[in-house]
Amino acid sequence: MSHSTDIQTTEHELAFEGFRFVARTASAGSSATEPVVVLGGSSQDRFSWLRYERWLLPHATVLTLELPGYGCADPLPVEYGMDFLADTVCHATDTLALGRVNVFGACFGASIALRCAQRHPDKIARLMLGGTATEVSPEYVASARRWRRMADDGLFDAMAQDMVQQFMAPPGNGVVRRRAAVARLMGQRFASLTERELAMDITHHERLLTHPWSLPHPAITAPALVFTGEHDTITPPAVGRGVAEGLAARFTTIKESDHLVQIERDSDLADLMTRFFTDQSLDDLPYLNPVEHFVSA
Questions:
Q1: Which of the four, 4, 90, 133, 139, has the lowest number of CB atoms within 10 Å?
Q2: Pairing of strands 250-254, 36-39
Q3: Rounded to two decimals, what is the model's pTM?
Q4: Distance, CA of 179 to CA of 173 (rounded, Å)
Q5: CA atoms of 90 and 82, how far apart (whole Å)
């Protein structure tokens, strides 16, 4: 289907090892860099990053996915981990004949993106990871277990508010752009989850408790950038810096944002994505703190 004479969008129903999923490609005919694959967090679908297309399409084709366990794709049992999801992503890029791709992953999607680069290095041109960690924190483990109990007890409104509080920095933790508006938006989003969406979301949280978030080996070969919001409390800057050091990647933080930087500073994050994926300089950008460079030991 086409939304205009310039932008072509197509939805593809695919399957991998018996699980049906959906891929969405968008193109404006530009190819300044390889196609960009966008992998979002656990509660997101193929439309969650739709507004990013207007910034990315002048430079590359964009692929967004509803992997098994997301959106209208087939549910994915908790026994399947990030390795399976990474293989599913690469199955999609192969099926759609996209060739080598740039991969962007945020939060849960960052874990999948990293596995893509580790398991299929020949398919990855550049890797960008946001809000990531080497392991699940004790605080997140406690939260995930609490959300399961609240869901089982039907305390959906309370659970929605609890999720907002966990994913956003506390009010006194520093300036966060659009904080009040984003808190309302996320509260509405969590509270409006259907029974099916809620079950998938809880399964994603439990997936993180039963499968490793990050594996140190094999080493990645693609150029990599790790970032987070400067006030992120779910995956704090020190944790992201540790990931970058382990990957011999670059690391930076985006000013006046927390874990939900993709909503709070969307145009700035899109600019960072475009610059990184087209090999432009990341120095002296007004929305970034200084970029740190790590090299292999």
A1: 4
A2: unpaired
A3: 0.93
A4: 12
A5: 12
Measured from the Cβ of residue 50, the count of other Cβ atoms closer than 10 Å reads 15
Query: Could you give the dihedral angle defined by the CA atoms of residues 173, 175, 180 and 185, in that order, rounded to the nearest 10 degrees?
Result: -90
Residue with tokens 């994915």: 76
In this structure, what token pair is assigned to residue 200?
Answer: 């998938």
Q: What is the distance between the alpha carbons of residues 90 and 99, in angstroms, rounded to a whole number?
A: 10
Q: How far apart are CA 76 and CA 78, in angstroms?
A: 6
Choosing from 153, 185, 205, the residue where a domain stops is: 205
Per-residue pLDDT tens over the stretch 216-240? 889 999 999 999 999 999 999 999 9
Q: How far apart are CA 290 and CA 297, in angstroms?
A: 22
Residue after which a domain boundary falls, among 152, 180, 205 = 205
**260 close to 186: Cβ distance less than 8 angstroms:** yes
142 and 128 in a single domain? The answer is no
Residue range(s) defining the domain that contains residue 197: 138-205
